[in-house]
Specification:
Among the domains are: 3-46; 60-130, Orthogonal Bundle (DNA Binding (I), subunit A); 158-235; 322-367, no CATH class. It has helices at residues 3-8, 10-26, 32-46, 70-77, 79-86, 94-107, 110-130, 184-191, and strands spanning 158-163, 165-166, 180-181, 199-203, 209-213, 219-220, 230-235, 322-327, 330-335, 340-343, 349-357, 362-367. It is built from 8 helices and 12 strands. It is of the alpha+beta class. It is extended.
């Protein structure tokens, strides 16, 4: 039964209930007090009280809004100029204007961008002052990378340096002070305390620093256009720790069922001989042994990403943190802090936000007035 059909039957049910009570009251089967009590109970349990909703945060006219990035300010303030100069004044899709604005912004000099970035910084400071964070910010870790240059001192028990060569796999992650160090001396001290560390690789590209590596076999960087250079050192007489053997369960083989012949009953000796019934024959299935997982080649390149870096800088003051979100087959950009939605193509703010419902474990699209 649909919900709409059930709602239409409520008035009829209520009327039948009251008619029944009136009949019993007239026959003196119930007292007036009992009548009043039952009618009051029915009205109380059928009336749905609307919960009072607190005013939406976006309804406050004096609220300091989160500023958009400086590049978006440039686009919004020069929208008409972009249409006149690059689209002959015609009305075009917002995505085309946004694309052209980004192209123009990327080609601008630092002096041309400076007014927009200054205004963004001022707006951001006002926003932070009006909306203090409830969670303490994580203090930034100082990281002053010191490149050794062309002359490296090799400590006792180490070999190298191996120029333009790197070692596979991080031995202890990529966090500052744990798996990555700003100086060669710090990296050597940490590496000698780790049994599974086979060496150190210095990276002067986007991931600057000395990192602890598992491998003890230097590999050549074969990229056509490297963004930095590698230098590696290895431990002498390093023995790779043995990995614990994986326990695999033996697969059970199926045993074929035996043929069973039924003897004819003595009471039916005059009947013709019947073919004895047999159980279905099951074929043996071969036991498939699982091969141990082979180690895949783990060549590391500059393009590899590590989203779990604990030392990533806070970019709140420069760019709006948005991510892609789909709802009913339509894409949006969403501010992960406020859940404000933006048009996916034009990047314009919408009068909508997304709301999380914990009881259903899902996000839904809501108007900013809700």
């Amino acid at each position: 039964m649909s919900s709409s059909a059930s709602y239409t039957k409520v008035p009829a049910l209520k009327q039948a209930f009251f008619d029944f009570l009136n009949e019993k009251l007239e026959d003196s089967a119930i007292t007036q007090d009992a009548y009043d009590e039952m009618t009051g109970w029915f009205n109380q349990n059928t009336k749905k009280e609307r919960k009072k909703r607190s005013p939406a945060r976006n309804d406050d006219p004096n609220r300091v809004k989160r500023p958009v990035p400086a590049s978006w300010m440039f686009r919004d303030e020069n929208r008409q100029k972009i249409m006149d100069e690059h689209f002959d004044g015609e009305q075009v899709k917002g995505s085309m204007i946004a694309g052209k604005a980004k192209e123009l912004w990327d080609s601008m000099s630092a002096e041309e961008k400076e007014p927009y970035e200054t205004r963004h910084a001022e707006k951001w400071a006002a926003y932070k002052e009006a909306n203090p964070s409830s969670t303490p910010t994580k203090p930034k870790v100082e990281f002053n990378f010191v490149e050794k240059g062309d002359v490296f001192g090799v400590p006792d028990g180490w070999e190298g340096p191996f120029y333009n060569k790197y070692l596979h796999k991080y031995a202890d992650g990529y966090s500052i002070g744990v798996g990555r160090f700003a100086t060669f001396e710090e990296a050597i001290e940490a590496a000698e305390k780790m049994e599974n560390c086979g060496g150190i690789t210095m990276d002067t590209g986007s991931r600057k620093g000395y990192t602890l590596r598992k491998s003890n076999d230097p590999q050549t960087d074969l990229r056509e256009s490297p963004t930095g250079k590698y230098v590696s050192w290895t431990k002498k007489h390093f023995v790779t720790p043995k990995q614990p053997e994986k326990k695999t369960k033996a697969k059970k083989t199926k045993v074929p069922a035996k043929k069973v012949e039924k003897e004819p009953s003595e009471d039916y000796t005059d009947m013709p001989d019947l073919e004895p019934a047999t159980a279905s024959q099951q074929e043996d299935e071969p036991v498939v042994s699982k091969n141990e997982d082979a180690e895949k080649y783990d060549a590391e390149t500059e393009s590899e990403s590590d989203d779990s870096d604990s030392d990533s800088e806070d970019e709140d003051g420069e760019e709006l943190k948005v991510t892609e979100w789909s709802f009913k087959n339509k894409k949006y950009l969403v501010d992960t802090e406020t859940n404000q939605l933006y048009d996916f193509d034009t990047q314009d703010p919408l009068k909508k936000h997304r709301k999380y419902y914990a009881d259903k474990d899902t996000w839904k699209l809501k108007s900013n007035k809700d």
